[in-house]
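Thanks for the sequence, V.! I ran TF-B3 domain-containing protein right away. Repeating your input here for the record:
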Amino acid sequence: MVAAAVETQGMSPYEAARERNVQENKRKMEALNLGHLSAVIKEAPKTPSPLKPKRRRIIEDAVVVPSPPRRSRQLAQLPEVKYVEIAPHTADRMTRSPRKPADLIYLARSGTISMKARLEATKKAEELESQLDPDIPSFVKAMLHSHVVRGFWLGLPSHFCDTYMPKQDAIITLLDEKDEEFDTNYLAYKKGLSGGLAGFALCHGIQDGDAAVFQLIKPTTFKVYIIRAASDDGSELDE
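Predicted structure:
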């Protein structure tokens, strides 16, 4: 105690109390022989913990056994079809609609179309529409580049579609003045004609600036009358 008192001389009360606690803890550790035990643990050799031996999986080459194809009960009694017996030259192929001669396909009009010529074609189309049966729905559409040259998408008047056109997607037939039929795809949510319109436009040489009268003679059939617009050089293309 005297030695401890000497060591704490000149210390603040806090430092003196801390030093007394340190000395007290040292005496307790010596009484429990903890210092010797800690030294023994540090000097002991490190030995790895035993690990379980790994089991290696031996994967043998799988033998693929061919199994018969799964067939429904309704088809189980039918004879199996062997496609190898069908020769390529005898197999039925999809037939395509005959193409028009190349000279009937016009991708661009020679010459330019003025606004006056466009309005004149539309005016003639409106005059033609006025001569049709008023009980049969119809409308006039001025042809644009996106309708007949690139894109081939023809939007129809919204009020006309809401009143007369199918409420779901359908096949709409375009009937020309020679009663030749061309099927197109009508998209109800977009209110326009898409697939098949290119064939109709190219076969009839419809150009940017022309006008057309669409007369709904049946729920899914349009009678189409084409009015040609004159070029600036005064020429007018006919079918």
